[in-house]
Amino acid sequence: MTSSGAPLQAPIGTHDVLGPASAEWEGLIATFAQFAYRFGFSLIISPLFEDVAVFNRGIGEQSDVAKKEMYVFSDRSDRTYALRPEGTASVVRAFVQHQPNTPWKAWYVTPAFRYERPQAGRYRQHHQLGVEVLGTDDPAVDVEVIALAWRFYEALGLRKVRLLINSMGHDDCRDGFVQLLRDHLSSNASKLCDEHGRLWSENPLRVLDCKKEACRAVTDSGPQLPDHLCDECREHFDRVLNGLSALGISATRDPRLVRGFDYYTRTTFEFVSDSIDGAQNAIGGGGRYDKLAEQLGGKPASGIGFGSGIERLLLARTAEGVQQVLLKRDLDIFVVDTTGVDAATPIVDQLRRAGYAVDRAYDGRSMKAQMKVADKSGARLALLLGPQELAGGQITMKDLRNDDFSNSQRTFDLSDLVANIAKQLEE
RNA sequence: GUGGGCGUAGCUCAGUUGGUUAGAGCGCCAGGUUGUGGUCCUGGAGGCCGCGGGUUCGACCCCCGUCGCUCACCCCA
Description:
The chain is an alpha+beta fold. It has 16 helices and 16 strands. It has helices spanning 20-38, 52-59, 64-69, 88-98, 139-156, 171-187, 194-199, 204-209, 213-220, 231-246, 292-295, 310-320, 344-353, 367-377, 387-392, 417-426, and strands at residues 42-43, 49-51, 72-74, 80-83, 104-113, 125-134, 161-167, 251-253, 265-273, 282-288, 303-309, 333-337, 358-360, 381-385, 394-399, 409-413.
């Protein structure tokens, strides 16, 4: 279990994002930032690790994540921290700590860590982007948060996404339902699947989520969550459903949808991609958490949010064959210098200060070699500096996208450089 | 935590019933006379064949272990 001798590599279940993949990531994140901005959210950056209590009290000590998937560690002063396993708890902790004016709308993009066996669409470090709204329980906010996710997925080109939605109820009605469910499970415990036959009493709601036939049969015949909502919760849920419907967002009610964290109340929802085979088809999810701020030691404040896994969004995009380019980051100019006196450096600096994206070759390679690099860089223009140009105070500009080699370049005085480039790039 | 598949150059992969200097394509580097890219041609660099042990005269190939990758179960993003 040591790393001695073996070549260093990224830890199990983690990966480096580089090359074309990083451009896709950059585009995805930029797109989300744009949507968050349009919807009135501001970016929040909070610590990657928190006092372990933030997560234990947040997502629930009985949840699988808290029990066996968290990266917990002690620092040199023996404080116990955990790497964030999800995005919401930290944001709510920050809300409690700083007490910003409400409603408070924050968006984030962050790594999340869970100690699990990796497989397709599941990693020990994955990345989420999401939003949280605190300080209001207006159903219009539920609708807005879901709509943000929905419109974002649309912008990514995803078409095979389904929205599943449920209401967990609030305090009393939820607790009442759990009691009924507990009674039902208790008298049918022998019929449950192996795992839940043993564990149902720890967290009865989880049994609803079990996909095994045995558990399904038992829960089908038992109490149903939607039948036990109080009048207020029912009205809230109806307003959410109506609001979505008014926006043309179709939601499928799923009474079994309880989600993995204990903090959810009322609205819960999940986005699944029908293009992804296998179990990792949830590309996003979220819900309302009206007690979480209190659980983290703050004043009562309602909240709702959603998070989406970047890796799974990309998986879904690939599965759907989406070719859409989200972000173009082509270079404007590539500078080739064969003068031997590094004439490129001040030119490159001048052009970058003028706002152009500029790169150059290094190591004094041959003009042919530098031109090949220029070609591969994707730059629109190449600037050539050789002994001839140097002697005459000139520079040669070549349009790399012009197929006609003989007519693709011209030489002019260095003092006319920026003006000529501006003109050329306009075309 | 449990099970299946796989680990040969930077990447994708060949490698004949175990037999001598381990190959290809792509990429990379250098050339193809006079300072110029995308096609083409030539040459070159680059591999403890994941790691350790075993069987054998001899192992990339067979056996065991180990590490890693991958897929699935569980759960989730």
